[in-house]
Write a structure and sequence with these properties.
about 220 residues, alpha/beta, 6-stranded mixed sheet, two-stranded antiparallel sheet, 11 helices, disordered C terminus, binds zinc ion
């Protein structure tokens, strides 16, 4: 089941440029302080952080957070700066599909698990294909909403690589919907962002949607 197809288009004006400055203004707590905060949440849940099974949990949670949120220490722009120009004139769509990612919703800090499909239409320069997946990771491993994740991936590739077009489609399940709140398992959210030729040329867009073979994409609507 699909909902909010094309939601990224509505959210496209939400630039992500504000974020680094906002983050820099927030002082990072010590590991000790972070572990104490987890203890407080365990007590809030109704359990005793002093019992045997929970003794090392604050330490483990803080360590897990380092993995969940390592994207804050990665620079997606730097990932894309190394490009290759020896392509023998290759000028067709380059697409990487089914990039699995795990993120966390910024409203509840519970997992968002999904797949991203990323494509660009090169303008003389190409990038190492794994870099597309690493850009997805760098933005996914932060506190996110899916619309912003979609926009950040597309805009960064567009701004750094300067291709003729960029397309990003993300399909994801939000555990804040499946395990709490409205409890709707099986629902996935689809967002997309089309830039350049993928936005202006319906045949390029169709080619991308056919390449990713997405059911969601087939039912989606994209403005030209
Ligand atoms: Zn949520």
């Amino acid at each position: 089941m699909t909902m909010e197809s094309g939601g990224a288009l509505a959210a496209e004006e939400e630039a992500n440029d504000k974020e680094p400055a906002a983050r820099a203004a927030v002082a990072r707590p010590s590991r000790e302080e972070a572990e104490r905060a987890v203890e407080v949440l365990i007590r809030w849940a109704g359990d005793d952080p002093g019992r045997e099974g929970l003794l090392n949990t604050p330490e483990r949670v803080v360590k897990a957070y380092e993995g969940f949120f390592e994207g804050y220490h990665q620079d997606p722009v730097a990932l894309l700066e190394r490009t290759f120009e020896e392509t023998d004139g290759y000028d067709e769509v380059v697409a990487l599909r089914n990039i699995r990612f795990e993120s966390h919703c910024e409203h509840h800090i519970v997992p968002i698990i999904g797949r991203a499909h990323v494509a660009y239409l090169p303008d003389k320069r190409v990038i190492g294909i794994s870099k597309l997946a690493r850009v997805v990771e760098a933005y996914a491993k932060r506190l996110q909403i899916q619309e912003k994740l979609t926009t950040q991936i597309a805009n960064t590739i567009n701004d750094v690589l300067r291709p003729k077009g960029v397309a990003v489609v993300i399909e994801a399940a939000h555990q804040c919907m499946t395990t709490r709140g409205v409890h709707k398992p099986g629902v996935s959210m689809v967002t997309s962002r089309m830039l350049g030729r993928f936005r202006s040329d319906p045949s390029t867009r169709r080619e991308f949607l056919a390449l990713i073979g997405s059911d969601a994409a087939a039912g989606g609507h994209w403005e030209s």
